[in-house]
From TrEMBL:
MF (Gene Ontology): lactaldehyde dehydrogenase (NAD+) activity
Matches recorded under Pfam families: Aldedh
EC assignment: 1.2.1.3
Top-tier EC class: oxidoreductase
Residue intervals of the Aldehyde dehydrogenase domain: 12-463
PANTHER family in UniProt: ALDEHYDE DEHYDROGENASE (PTHR42991)
Family to which this protein belongs: Belongs to the aldehyde dehydrogenase family.
Record SUPFAM superfamilies: ALDH-like (SSF53720)
Oxidoreductase keyword on record: yes
Keywords: Oxidoreductase
Presence of keyword Oxidoreductase: yes
Protein name: Aldehyde dehydrogenase
Domain of life: Bacteria
Length: 470
């Protein structure tokens, strides 16, 4: 593939800084388009080794990395917190989830089985016998975001290795360090050289090379909608998995356990400063409990402690950079200019943004329809369940949702009617375990993650049929 040298970035390194205060942490190589092509060459060659690796070797690799990560969890957690947006307590939870994701991946390497096929169901095929096997795809490009810089990496490279593929990992330019640390753990195992490669660089320089090359058989991307749609247009004839975020709703019915609903939605609204695809952005509250709920929600939001991410007492850290915080500021300004009401928060200080609650937000506001990706939640009042469902579905996203009620008939009704990939009953949209199917509908993307689902997405069925003599 020809490379236009004019688009190569002249800087040889990417400097990684703490978004909290801009202090230097470390640097990584700034790869260019030529580097990307070389890595694809290497991945193609390495696939000849990875596709014949026995299941027990793939399991051993993944379990060794999981064990090493568990032993070094504090070192990894410190880097997650320093280069990204999470407090140290949030980072520790991500690290332990990553351990679980890798162990689940090892187990799926054991379960990657095919099935026999009853060919004699078709007249004239009585003497035929066969089966299918799940075989690895080949070279997979994995592109990951900044908000879960370790566990979302594991959700792509763990299943890819479990299935026998070779992988080129491209982490976000803001948070490449913990991804590199994880790749280094893999390099200390018996995984053949070149099966897992790390490429660090800017998407506008290396992205098209990785996505469009026909030797790449799958692109797995988690990130923004605009980039995801661009990948879909350019990828060509290959598998594409896209997780593109959301504008997640919660529906709180009149009979709900209010304390439980508050605990779940406040956490879901402000975890990782709202920079989370499962962030609780809209809450629909039944009229009889609206005042009680909204007052308590704002009271809890006001008590959230912002500050140094590495302090154990800090509840919420910064946004990924000042530009991201300014974008949230502009979304709120747009809503206020259209007669929205600010219940609490709304102030920016550099890359920090206060936990913010709005109400009276009209449908023509950007923040009502788009993913805010920040610590902002909108409260709505409803008088009947059907109107709450209609409002919750009235966006071009559908990742997950939360429903709070003690009435199981209502729970099933609302859950079935919500247009999304997952509904959490008496939990917010922000609840997830790494073993469950995960993905969205509408503008939230294509395909399903969750380790078992991802392993199967990263394979293809091959059928074998024997015409037997009788």
């Amino acid at each position: 593939m020809p490379v236009n040298s004019n688009v190569l970035d002249e800087k040889s390194v990417i400097t990684v800084v703490d978004p909290q205060d801009g202090t230097y942490i470390n640097e990584v190589k700034n790869h260019n388009a030529v580097d990307a092509l070389k890595m694809i060459d290497t991945a193609v060659d390495a696939f000849n080794k990875s596709k014949i690796l026995p299941a027990h070797v793939r399991m051993s690799v993944l379990n060794k990395v999981a064990n090493a990560l568990f032993e070094q969890q504090e070192r990894f957690s410190q880097i997650i917190a320093r280069e990204g947006i999470k407090t140290i307590r949030e980072a520790r939870k991500e690290t332990l989830r990553c351990v679980d994701t890798l162990r689940l991946s090892a187990e799926e390497a054991r379960r990657l089985n095919g099935e026999t096929i009853s060919f004699d169901q078709a007249p004239g095929s009585e003497n035929r016998f066969g089966y299918f096997k799940q075989l690895p795809l080949g070279v997979i490009v994995a592109i990951t975001p900044f908000n879960d810089p370790l566990n979302l990496v594991a959700h792509k490279i763990g299943p890819a290795i479990a299935a026998g593929n070779s992988v080129i990992l491209m982490p976000h330019t803001e948070t490449p360090l913990v991804a590199k640390m994880l790749v280094d753990l893999f390099n200390n195992t018996e995984l053949p050289e070149g099966v897992l490669q790390l490429i660090t660089g800017h998407g506008d320089v290396i992205g098209d090379v990785l996505v469009t090359d026909p030797r790449v058989r799958m692109v797995s991307f988690t990130g923004g909608s605009a980039v995801g749609n661009n990948i879909l247009k350019k990828a060509g004839l290959k598998k594409v998995a896209l997780e593109l975020g959301s504008n997640c709703p919660a529906v709180v019915l009149a009979d709900a356990d209010i304390e439980k609903a508050l605990d779940a939605t406040v956490s879901g609204a402000f975890w990782a400063a709202g920079q989370n695809c499962l962030h609780v952005q809209r809450i629909y509250i039944a009229d009889p409990i609206y005042d009680q709920f909204s007052n308590a929600f704002c009271e809890r939001a006001n008590k959230i402690k912002m500050g140094d991410k590495l302090k154990e007492t800090t509840d919420m850290g910064p946004m990924i950079n000042a530009t991201a915080a300014q974008k949230v500021e502009s979304l709120i300004a747009d809503a206020l200019s259209k007669n929205a009401t600010l219940l609490c928060g709304g102030k920016r200080n550099g890359s920090y943004f206060q936990p913010t609650v709005l109400t009276d937000v009209s449908d023509d506001c950007f923040i009502a329809n788009e993913e805010v990706f920040g610590p902002v939640t909108i409260l709505y009042r409803f008088t009947d369940v059907d109107s709450a469902i209609e409002m919750a579905n009235n966006v071009d996203f559908g990742l997950q949702a939360g429903v709070f009620t003690n009435d199981m008939n209502l729970a099933f009704k609302v859950a079935d009617a919500l247009e999304c990939g997952g509904v959490m009953i008496n939990d917010s949209s922000d609840y997830r375990i790494d073993a469950m199917p995960f993905g969205g509908v509408k503008g939230s993307g294509l395909g399903r993650e969750g380790v078992a689902n991802t392993v199967r997405e990263m394979t293809e069925a091959k059928t074998y049929c024997f015409n037997l003599n009788t």
